[in-house]
Specification:
The structure holds 2 protein chains of 2 kinds. Chain A is α/β, with parallel strands linked by helices. Chain A contains 10 helices and 10 strands. In chain A, the strands form 2 sheets. Chain A has a 6-stranded mixed β-sheet, sandwiched between helices. A 4-stranded antiparallel β-sheet of chain A has the order 2-1-4-5, covered by helices on one side. The chains are: A alpha/beta, B mainly alpha.
Chain lengths: 272, 395
């Protein structure tokens, strides 16, 4: 069984934002997920705290992306997926029968590994989520689009061509546009599935800066393959292996003095 | 140590003498063969058009004369004519004219004279009988024929006076095609959206092949079904007067258009990247909103291509329309009968005299039809290109 209780956070100069960070927002308990007969997640229990960047790390196929997708029920789209256990956001079980998946996804935004702007204008990409929520006033949309693009550090680059196609942007700009699109609807949580893995180092560092900026307002859960990235941007880290949560805790601790041998082997690069 | 001499083959150039097609002759051959095959299809299309247009050329150039009453040259005057004039008078080709001896030509002139003398009395003073109905004016403008009380568009190719007004045929084709498309496109695109975006896999596995199987039904069978069953049922439902009309034909036509539009639109919708769908769903869009607001706009070029091809199919479909309705009445009402261009060609070509004006007019209709489909496909292609560029953010 994996360690289920999150250790008490230590306040360190490296983790200033942990100070004052809220109580746990997401509580996952004994969550198992099956693709048909194979079990992709085994009894995962984890608490994720408000306004903190939590990184999921682990080798490929360890279930970290699967767990991420449980949090906005994107796994529902795959046939033959079965889930046991519970995942609560703000005390509500998101797998309860009365949960409206669409409402849930409005509150839990997501940024994908491969940037996926819609083949529409930059403006429409950002405004789409708001339009879904019934916002029609032009002024309101304009403000929200501008705010979101500023928030995603993209405004200066695109303000003169809001009406041109989003597919004309570079890869890094597209990914920041996707982040702008996600934050435009003001979700509580943003899930990021390896958001920088398809980007060059410069674009990556811009996205990382952005994530550090965003954690003031949002709870961020990020899956990453890049260990340095996890140390740079996350406050807390959870290490997964073969569908199990091996260890979780403050990032500093996981990377410098992990309790488990397997964690140590992974973070020091001995396997993975 | 003695220097070892390289004992390989003699080579020249950077990587040896065998380069280009000499290195891989089979691949080279296969490539050239495929190129030739694809070239030959272009050539075929071109040749078909050239053939059709050549047969229709005298009409386009206004060289045919279909007037019933023509000036007569008595056979005795044969020597007064130049050979070129005589040939034109007898309506012969150069070769035919060369082969004939003088006597045959005199006989032919006699036949002409007799034919003119057999024209009934009542037609002799009829201005219609002197009219060349293959002129553009007669083919396109309405005319008040004898015993009609107002100018009308009339296609009556058989009879003593050949009435070749092609407007009713164009109106007929247009009527039937538009009705067919109005029926087929929403149904086919709707079905494509459902199958590609909303349906469960098991439903998709059943419905998709069934719709595509529709295209395997011979159009003559569809026509038969429409003629015997649909026409009666629809008359009962809608209560119109003419049982066989453009409306029934259009609906029956949509049976052959639906599978085509469906399968191309479905392909286009399915090939929209899953990442768009996922992005929209993750923003809190419902499946329906995703399909309608994200996937359909992203697939517009493909769906539009499906519609263009559907138009080509609809305007070119012959058998269904031929069986369901083919009276060439000039009417914009969809509940009147109509005869399309294709139907006209199919029904009348067998009885038209080869080389005659009726025959040539049918070829002209074919050439126009060819041009219309060609131009509509070109325009469609242009629009698709524009749409794609706009979407990809290029200018």
């Amino acid at each position: 069984m994996a360690e289920t209780v999150l250790p008490k956070l230590e306040v360190t100069p490296q983790n200033p934002l942990v100070v004052g960070a809220g109580a746990s927002l997401i509580e996952i308990s004994n969550l198992s997920l099956f693709y048909g007969k194979s079990r992709a997640l085994k009894d995962v229990s984890l608490k994720i705290r408000e306004r903190v960047v939590t990184a999921f790390i682990g080798p490929s196929g360890c279930g970290k992306s699967t767990l991420l997708r449980c949090l906005n029920r994107m796994n529902d789209l795959i046939d033959g997926v079965r889930i046991e256990g519970s995942a609560k956001i703000g005390g509500h079980d998101i797998y309860a029968p009365d949960v409206d998946v669409i409402e849930l996804r409005k509150r839990v935004g997501m940024v994908f590994q491969k940037s996926n702007p819609f083949p529409k204008s930059i403006y429409d990409n950002v405004a789409y989520g708001l339009k879904l929520q019934g916002v029609t006033s032009k002024g309101e949309l304009d403000t929200a689009v501008e705010q979101s693009l500023i928030g995603a550090a993209l405004w200066d680059e695109v303000k003169d061509r809001l009406q041109s196609s989003a597919l004309g942007l570079s890869g890094g700009q597209q990914q920041r546009l996707c982040i702008a699109r996600a934050i435009a609807v003001k979700p509580e949580i943003i899930l990021m599935d390896e958001p920088a893995s398809a980007l060059d180092p410069i674009a990556t560092s811009r996205v990382e800066d952005l994530i550090l900026e965003l954690r003031k307002d949002f709870t961020i859960v990020i899956v990453t393959h890049n260990m340095q990235q996890a140390t740079r941007i996350s406050d807390e880290t959870a290490f997964f292996y073969m569908g199990e949560l091996i260890e979780s805790g403050p990032t500093q601790k996981i990377f410098t003095m992990p309790k488990q041998k397997r964690t140590e082997d992974y973070v020091t690069g001995r396997f993975g | 140590m003695p220097q070892q001499q390289h004992q390989g083959k003699l080579t020249s150039g950077w990587m040896g003498i065998h380069r280009g097609h000499k290195a891989r002759p089979l691949e080279w051959l296969a490539e050239k063969f495929i190129f030739l095959v694809s070239l030959s299809t272009i050539l075929m299309v071109f040749l078909i058009f050239v053939f059709v247009a050549r047969e229709a050329l005298p009409i386009f150039l206004g060289k045919e004369n279909s007037a019933l009453i023509k000036p007569v040259i008595p056979p005795a005057d044969i020597d007064k004519l130049k050979s070129e004039e005589l040939r034109a008078y007898l309506n012969l080709t150069e070769k035919q004219f060369q082969k004939m001896d003088r006597e045959t030509k005199v006989d032919l002139m006699l036949v002409k004279q007799e034919a003119q003398s057999e024209i009934p009395e009542r037609l002799l003073n009829d201005p219609d009988a002197k009219l060349n109905t293959t002129e553009w004016g007669a083919m396109l403008k309405p005319r008040q024929w004898a015993s009609y009380n107002k100018p009308e568009y009339i296609w009556q190719p058989i009879g003593q006076i050949h009435k070749y007004n092609i407007i009713p045929l164009f109106v007929g084709s247009l009527k039937i095609t538009i009705i067919g498309l109005l029926f087929a496109v929403p149904l086919a695109v709707g079905a494509a959206i459902y199958i590609s975006q909303l349906a469960r896999p098991r439903v998709r596995e059943v419905v998709k092949p069934v719709i595509e199987m529709l295209s395997g039904i011979p159009s003559v069978v569809v026509g038969f079904f429409a003629l015997l069953i649909m026409a009666t049922v629809m008359q009962k439902v809608f209560g119109y007067e003419t049982r066989l009309n453009a409306f029934v034909a259009g609906v029956a036509l949509s049976f052959s258009v639906i599978p085509l539009v469906f399968s191309i639109a479905e392909d286009a919708l399915t090939s929209v990247p899953r990442s768009y769908t996922q992005g929209a769903l993750a923003l809190g869009a419902s499946r329906w909103q995703t399909a309608w607001q994200i996937v359909l706009p992203a697939a517009t070029p493909g769906v539009f291509a499906a519609v263009v091809l559907g138009f080509g199919r609809a305007i070119g479909e012959t058998m269904i329309v031929l069986m369901v309705c083919s009276a060439s009445v000039m009417s914009w009402s969809i509940f009147d009968s109509a005869r399309s261009i294709t139907t006209t060609i199919a029904a009348e070509m067998a009885e038209a005299v080869a080389g005659g004006h009726h025959y040539r007019i049918l070829f002209m209709l074919g050439a126009i039809l060819f041009a219309v489909t060609f131009v509509s496909n070109m325009l469609g292609e242009l629009v698709i290109h524009r749409l794609k560029h706009k979407m990809e953010g290029k200018r």
